[in-house]
Amino acid sequence: MGIEDILMHDESIFQNINAFDPDFIPDNFNYRDTQMEAMAMAIRPAIGGGKPNNLVVLGSCGTGKTTAVKKVFELVEKTSEKVITCYINCQLHTTRFGIFSQIHKKVFGHLPPETGVPFSKIYEKIMKHLQKEEKGLIVAFDDVNYLFQSKNANKIFYDLLRAYEEFPGTKTGIFAILSDLELRFAFDKNVNTVFIPQDITFQPYSYSEILDILSDRSKVGFYSGVISDDIIEEITEYTINNGDLRTGIDLLRITGNIAEANASREIKIEHLKEAIKSQTSVNLSETLKSLNSIEKSLLEIIVDSSEILTAGNLSDKFLEKEDVSYATFNRTLEKLEFLRLIDTKFTGKGVRGNSREIILRFNPEDFFKLCK
Ligand SMILES: Nc1ncnc2c1ncn2[C@@H]1O[C@H](COP(=O)(O)OP(=O)(O)O)[C@@H](O)[C@H]1O
Ligand SMILES: [Mg+2]
């Protein structure tokens, strides 16, 4: 295919390519009724002019938390004028000013000026408006752990939940969304007693639920006849073993792109195989980006080594190269194993597990391609 053909090509297998975007909101959203009802129950008092309940929304990645909250918020705004809902992505907004600017945008339809207006003025303007209009405010903090890192969570929660002290009559609530279950405990340390939440849990999807969701998404995204049930089953299988629902949706998109690049009207198993390969390298690239310099340095020794390494030789080489302790070596090695970059195989010999064999779990060439 020439470049002109590629650009002119209007015969696509995609009926709606946006259906595979990470922030696509599907019309058909099943299996989360219980959780969405619980959210509605928490908001309900505010619709009658009372105080809403606070929630912690818990569940691992790809269990539909973000989508469920957005759906409920949409319904609330359609149903009642009494409540303003505001969704905040904490990966994007972590400062008090940044977050209240987003709330300002939701309440007044535009952001406040970026300079010259102090936080307190913006805060006062929002709260006075809620007070005068007698409207409740629910703010969802998605991936709220990003606020812990910037140590702002406590202040921001306080600003919102204690607003009624300075602005009597204001009704405010918070939904805190968390993907890392271990952080549930960190939560109480980071946010003091003004925030008394009820927990709502999103369990991981089962095989048949994922299959159903992926089939449904394929119907929206592809023209009929493009993808077979067999391929969707393969993708479901891969998703269950290697990731979460987002992996599956991503694979649908990548597989479709590969089929299209091969001028095929149908998705074939070889397209899926290629898609899985390319996705593994995307995941690897992201994992590698997240490593600190010490972790990278240890991984480099493993990648560069032409012989089979044991934990013992590896620690010698590492402690020669870096000025760190044996404990740091051990911790770093554990981290690489946790990230599934390496495996360590116990051979039963030696002390302190020093005879463990170190096995790289990816192709070293990919490391050079991605890191150099
Ligand atoms: N029950 C469902 N039905 C259809 N699509 C879903 C469902 N649950 C999740 N998804 C899709 O899976 C992806 C991840 O969902 P998301 O709400 O971002 O999960 P989380 O916030 O828990 O990580 C999104 O593309 C979303 O549209
Ligand atoms: Mg999410």
Describe the protein in words.
The chain is α/β, with parallel strands linked by helices. The chain folds into 3 domains: 3-14 and 206-288, Helicase, Ruva Protein, domain 3 (Orthogonal Bundle); 33-202, Rossmann fold; 291-371, Orthogonal Bundle (Arc Repressor Mutant, subunit A), CATH 1.10.10. The protein is built from 17 helices and 8 strands. The model has no long low-confidence stretch (mean pLDDT 90). Bound molecules: adenosine-5'-diphosphate and magnesium ion. Magnesium ion binds at residues 65-66, 142.
Question: What count of structural domains?
Answer: 3
Low-confidence stretches: none
Rg from Cα: 25 Å
Number of strands: 8
Average residue pLDDT: 90
Query: From the 3D coordinates, which CATH architecture of the largest domain would you assign?
Result: 3-Layer(aba) Sandwich
Strands in their spatial order, largest beta sheet: 2-3-4-1-5
The distinct bound ligands, ions and cofactors come out as: adenosine-5'-diphosphate, magnesium ion
Which structural class best describes the helix and strand composition?
Answer: alpha/beta
- CATH fold category name of the largest domain: Rossmann fold
CATH superfamily of the largest domain: P-loop containing nucleotide triphosphate hydrolases
Q: SSE order, as H and E?
A: HHEHEHHEHHHEHEHHHHHEHHEEH
* Oligomerization category of the chains in this entry: single chain
Helix content: 40-55%
Strand content: 5-15%
Name the CATH class of the largest domain: Alpha Beta
